[in-house]
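#struct-pred
JK: can someone run the complex with flavin-adenine dinucleotide? inputs below
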Amino acid sequence: MEYVFGDLWRVQVALALSLAYALLCYLMYRRALLAGLSPQADRHIGTDAKPVWIIYASQTGQAEAIARLAGRALGASGVPVNLRRIDQPWLNEVAGARHVLFVVSTCGEGSPPDHALGFFRTRLAAGACAALRGLSYGVLALGDRSYPHFCAFGLQLDQWLQASGAIAAFPRIDVDRLDAPSLTRWKHALQGLGAQTAVMTPALDTGFSDWRFVGRRCLNIGSPGAPLFKVELQPLAGLLPAWQAGDLVDLIPPGAEGRARTYSIASLPEEGRLELIVRTMIREDGTPGLASGWLNQSAWANDRASLKIRRNPGFNLACGLDTPLILIGAGSGIAGLRAHLQARAQAVAASGKNTPERCCWLVFGERSGRHDRPCHVEIEAWRRSRILTKLDLTFSRDDPITSYVQHALLKNARELQVWVEGGAHILICGSAQGMAQGVDQAMRSVLGGEQVDRLLEAGRIHRDVF
Ligand SMILES: Cc1cc2nc3c(=O)[nH]c(=O)nc-3n(C[C@H](O)[C@H](O)[C@H](O)COP(=O)(O)OP(=O)(O)OC[C@H]3O[C@@H](n4cnc5c(N)ncnc54)[C@H](O)[C@@H]3O)c2cc1C
Ligand SMILES: Cc1cc2nc3c(=O)[nH]c(=O)nc-3n(C[C@H](O)[C@H](O)[C@H](O)COP(=O)(O)O)c2cc1C
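RT: done, structure tokens with the ligand placed:
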């Protein structure tokens, strides 16, 4: 009897709890309905509300990643979002937008990213744009204060928007090497526009994991230049992740206090290892640079570093196997070119045949032909198997008249024209100052400035320069 009585009591308590829970649910639902936050209300915002447009311009993918995160944060609060690369059509579609947000980086010597050059030339340089009058906008400008023209493109864009009569929703935010305080201001600005910034994780600074140093091999013994090493790294745990030719790593060596150094990946995952080709940076006081010194001198097998693989859209290739490639580089720039040549060799092998259209031309420069021939065994093998159909090597210290890759292009002017007419894509990897500038001038003198601009705008010139 006592047992039955106990059960009855339990049933009553359970009933009371269920009723209380149902009442609570009803009250919460009613409150949400009144506040316009019910699922129906969400759908309503999603379809009828004015969209926020997010426009990005990015050379090495950081601005693009930040733009995508912002899109995710705004989308999570039910705001419709349109995300576009700056060179895609948007200007005639943004009338009536709630806000237009720009996330843009600066590269070269204060220039826009390559894919934004056409927009810069045809829109910004053309002056104020009536389509933007009255629009609410915001600019996040990525840059690096160690360059003389800090955030120059973001600044020019901001001035153009102001001159066009657009209205800043918040002051332009200039970001120095992804500094945390500026990115926090961006987050607050997005919150002010209603974004749910909690969904912005994984944030940009995550994605790093522990990797171990496997080994290194000097590629230029006896060279008059600073040492160049091929370095191998492996993830500390788990399998090798995926990447594609053209991608980069951000690496934080031990003791670097969070500031990552970027390196072009020289290998492909199919080879079962991640390899970099690194020049030891010698500082003014004669000491080696932090990251290059660690990789090339002080790291021992199994020492750990934090590493993240980063897509590099400007230097990835989407063109097919039948597109001719002109690969131009110098020094450690062989890293990014080697990955592309390896990808071409793998794709040709997988297709079972090589054809004359699948031609590759490597123009590579170093100092001494005797000591500076990185990857020469592979380059020779690719030449024999006709993966490489044309090879021009220049050695600046050997020739009586100093000769660089740009001189090789000038010497081969007719071939350059023919290859470009044949639809070639041009890949440029290595030093920005000396090499890439010289190559740009040589291409302009051979092909004409307008054609080079057109190639850049069409995404047929891919640059990984540093
Ligand atoms: C997209 C990209 C791809 C790259 N790919 C490669 C590659 O494949 N191979 C390769 O060897 N290198 C590559 N680099 C260069 C690489 O990232 C490093 O810059 C280089 O290895 C030097 O780093 P470090 O840590 O050894 O030198 P650091 O210790 O950073 O010193 C380098 C020099 O910069 C100066 N310096 C350091 N910090 C600052 C600062 N805050 N402001 C101003 N000056 C400063 C120092 O005085 C020194 O002269 C690439 C760079 C980029 C951006
Ligand atoms: C070759 C090179 C040139 C650069 N030139 C500039 C510059 O002139 N001004 C500037 O503020 N930042 C400059 N930067 C820094 C980039 O703007 C910064 O790294 C930015 O975060 C890159 O964003 P992205 O990956 O979206 O292109 C340069 C970076 C590189 C690699």
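RT: quick notes.
The two ends are 86 Å apart (CA to CA).
Confidence is low (pLDDT under 50) at residues 1-5, 25-47.
JK: thanks, will look after standup
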